[in-house]
Fold this protein.
Amino acid sequence: MNLAKPHLDIGLFSNAREPQLAFWQHTVGLPYDHMGKVGGGVQQHRHHMNGSILKMNHARDPLPAIAPSGIIGLQIAREGLSSPRPLADPDGNKVTLVPKGWDGVEGIAILLRVNDPAAHDRFWTHVMQYERVGDGRYRCGDSLMVIAEQGKVEHRGKEWRGLGYRYTTVQVFDCVAEYEGILGRGGTPGGDVRVLGETVRYAFVCDPDGNHIEISQRASLTGGRL
């Protein structure tokens, strides 16, 4: 995979705009980047996170009551810490600040609950072409996808934008080529290629448990090319 940025991003959805912004900016201490409208009454509030982006998507209308995704936690490396500091945002999403380098976390680690670890191993190594760096640990740039536990994860179907952590994003130079390559290696489509103004070309694929992964070609990272 030809990365345009060596860091994964993560997106969550919430109806609690002000409490969420206060938590991520003041409690966690993430610098605010900007807000973008992504349609459907959703505003995306972007925060810097060791080169990655935390996307707090605020939905104007009540979010549907659907099963949680398989993303069960986020770890963020932080200089100056001597031990992990577990936190939870206003909706209960778990995030832990960890000393830089703790358990191999240099930027961020995204924690998963999975139905079938073997299916995920094939997906992350073969379909997504991430590097296996340990048992159930997969690196993309300096970010980690980590199988934290095995357990029941319900598929959400077409309606996946619910409360909590919902998707990850990998930034690439050619969205169409990477999307087609992922599908050719056995990936499952999660949303056709689309273009948002002059900002981004993107598509979605799904992991074995239906968690969405955005394949993003962002003009600000590709020299303006979409």
The chain has a mean pLDDT of 96. The radius of gyration is 16 Å.
